Amino acid sequence: MVNYQAYASGNFLTDFDDVSDAIDAGDDAPEDQTIYTALNNVQNAMGSVWSAMLELARSAAPALGRLASCPNLNDPQLCLDYFVQYMVDNSETILDGGIEKDTSTSITGTSAGAGACKMLSTDINSNKIDVGHTEDLTLFCIRDYSQGSTAGAELFEIRGEDNSGKRPWEEGGSGTNGASYDYPYGNVRADFGPDIRRAVSGASLAAIGPSSSAGNLISNGDFESAISGTGSTKLPSWTISSGDTAVSQITAATSSNEAINGTYSIEVNDNFKMDHFFSQGRLKPRTAYGLAVKLTRKTSADCTLTVKIMDADEGTTHATLTQAVGSLSNDTVTLVSINPFLIPDNAEDLKVQVQLASNTTGELIIDDVMCGPATLVDGYFLAIYDGTYLNTSGYAQGRFKNGDQFVIQTTAGTAGEGEIQEYFVNRPWGRYFPSDESPTWADPA
User: Fold this and answer.
1) Whose CA is closest to 165, among 130, 138, 202, 131?
2) How many C-beta atoms surround the C-beta of residue 309 within 10 A?
3) CA 143 from chain center: how many Å?
4) Which is it for strands 317-324 and 272-277: parallel, antiparallel or unpaired?
5) 231 CB contacts (<8 Å, ≥6 apart)?
6) Contact in structure between 393 and 253 (CB atoms under 8 Å)
7) How far does Cα 381 stand from its chain's mean position?
8) In 3-state terms, what secondary structure has residue 334?
């Protein structure tokens, strides 16, 4: 069955096109039209058989649910949810499907301001998100600040390989070699929660910017609320648990001491630690988020900056951003960002913590601590981070502009790799099972 599905979705269509092209389209001879009609009948028949094969693959869901003790065998998605958890609990895997997206460090931008694009390729169980189409994706800025987007939250359209706007990965669209995919990839309730941001119907996503109106979930993450008074609560929305005297606020850009973005930034001249506590439900379980910060090293500062998303009681850390400041150039704004991360089920009270350690000299300017929702695109979570900064004259630089783009390259594994994954899980359901290059359950020979 797998081999037949592979032929129906791949070589058959190639062979069909070759035969069709061999007939002179300009020749209206009756015998040629007869061949065309016969070819179309074969194609229609192949499509009917393909649909039947998909239904056969889907019919296995209740049996898998029974094996995993699913309470409702009439709900195929719930059956698959339970079966995925059964595989996780028993350390079972199938052969890796062979689709590989670029790592976050390889996503390149063309005239993409000073921002960045990062990707999450593993799920809440640390398994590879083994789903997605083989086509490259382009994230193309279609609306910037001058066209009505909130500064820092410019809109990017997700396009297919030819950058024309087509989306072969979208629900109901055609996939590799024209094969139909009846579900959007990444439709995995067992791994991701109902509040995830998906780019299926809208086929676009916004960058994560510094302000709340630009998608930042950290109140006063852009430090635009002025410091008032002294002590641990002098910075609005933040609690400075140690080193409050090391923290000051700077304003207008000058040649020697400039705010990074907006009206204010904070400057730190010694070790310190501060927390922002999220209101309950601000970050949601089984949902992906991005995390980034902007820094300027002053007078050869040699400290280490750490930004964490963690439980309010500091029992579990869910994401960590670390930057050795000594490796940065002096007087240069740097955007530091990480891959998106997932919040687990048991996370309730959360906070973001910013800490400076091991400082012996110099100052560090900090601005735009950003945390916002990542977007599910073709089975993978993506976050685009704003990189806007001020030059020494106080003018904004590095903003995303219409036409800026990121390209996410995709490669496919060797032919026939992960056929159970592709033909029994990816294509019928738009989801995936835990996989490995050396699986416990091998593909049929």
Assistant:
1) 138
2) 24
3) 20
4) unpaired
5) 240, 244
6) yes
7) 2
8) strand
β-strand 94-95 against 435-436: which pairing, if any?
parallel
Q: What SS3 class is residue 109?
A: strand
Ranges of residues in the chain whose predicted pLDDT is under 70: 1-33, 35-36, 39, 42-44, 46-47, 49-50, 102-112, 132-135, 160-203, 252-257, 412-416
Torsion angle of the four alpha carbons 73, 59, 132, 83, in this order, in degrees rounded to the nearest 10: 40
Burial class (CB in 10 A: 0-12, 13-18, 19+), 198: middle
Is the model's pTM score more than 0.85? no
DSSP state of 360: -
- Contacts (Cβ under 8 Å, ≥6 apart) of 47: none
SS3 370: strand
Residue 105: strand, helix, or coil:
helix
Please report, as a single letter, which amino acid is at residue 46.
M
Residues 353 and 147: their CA atoms lie apart, in Å, by 35
Q: Which residues pair with 36 in a beta bridge?
A: none
Residues 6+ apart with CB under 8 A from 426: 97, 130, 131, 181, 185, 432
What is the distance between the alpha carbons of residues 257 and 377, in angstroms, rounded to a whole number? 40
Longest dimension (CA), the chain: 91
- In this structure, the strands spanning 239-242 and 247-250 are unpaired
Q: What is the DSSP letter of 128?
A: B
Q: Rounded to the nearest 10 degrees, what angle do helices 30-58 and 11-22 cross at?
A: 170
